[in-house]
Automatic annotation (TrEMBL):
<dbReference type="GO" id="GO:0030488">
    <property type="term" value="P:tRNA methylation"/>
</dbReference>
<comment type="similarity">
    <text>Belongs to the TRM112 family.</text>
</comment>
<dbReference type="GO" id="GO:0070476">
    <property type="term" value="P:rRNA (guanine-N7)-methylation"/>
</dbReference>
<comment type="subunit">
    <text>Interacts with TRM9.</text>
</comment>
<protein>
    <submittedName>
        <fullName>11764_t:CDS:1</fullName>
    </submittedName>
</protein>
<dbReference type="InterPro" id="IPR005651">
    <property type="entry name" value="Trm112-like"/>
</dbReference>
<dbReference type="InterPro" id="IPR039127">
    <property type="entry name" value="Trm112"/>
</dbReference>
<dbReference type="GO" id="GO:0046982">
    <property type="term" value="F:protein heterodimerization activity"/>
</dbReference>
<dbReference type="Pfam" id="PF03966">
    <property type="entry name" value="Trm112p"/>
</dbReference>
Length: 122
């Protein structure tokens, strides 16, 4: 699972409608999978990215080089660094935990399992 995907996931357990994003990462195993850099695609996603959540998630997995606030001026070096973190850093194993209800979503073979039991559905 790429970090860009994680930035779009939140808990959907019945009644869990606050403090359910971002999901906290735990016991993660990371891999780097290099992919071609695409400046235009990355630029188009920047407005959809929740920067504060992204930085918090990156810090959870040991990436501390991101600024706390999104920079006003963006250069190509920054975008390439961002590309590596968003698209090339993969969570292979681990779990995501909701800060509100503590529900755990496992990640296996790079795939997050967001399925809920019937009683957990809204």
């Amino acid at each position: 699972m790429r970090l860009i995907v994680h930035n779009m996931l939140q808990c959907h357990v019945k009644g869990c409608d606050s403090n359910n994003f971002p999901l906290q990462l735990s016991d993660v195993e990371l891999e780097i999978h290099e992919i071609e850099y695409n400046h235009e695609f990355l630029q188009s996603l920047l407005t959809k990215l929740d920067w504060k959540a992204f930085v918090a998630t990156a810090e959870q997995i040991g990436i501390t080089s991101l600024p706390q606030t999104f920079p006003e001026e963006i250069d190509e070096d920054f975008l390439k660094k961002l590309h590596r973190i968003l698209f090339e850093t993969h969570i292979v194993e681990g779990k995501m935990i909701c800060s509100n209800c503590s529900h755990e979503y496992p990640i296996r073979d790079g795939i997050p399992n967001m399925l809920l039991n019937e009683e957990e559905l809204e």
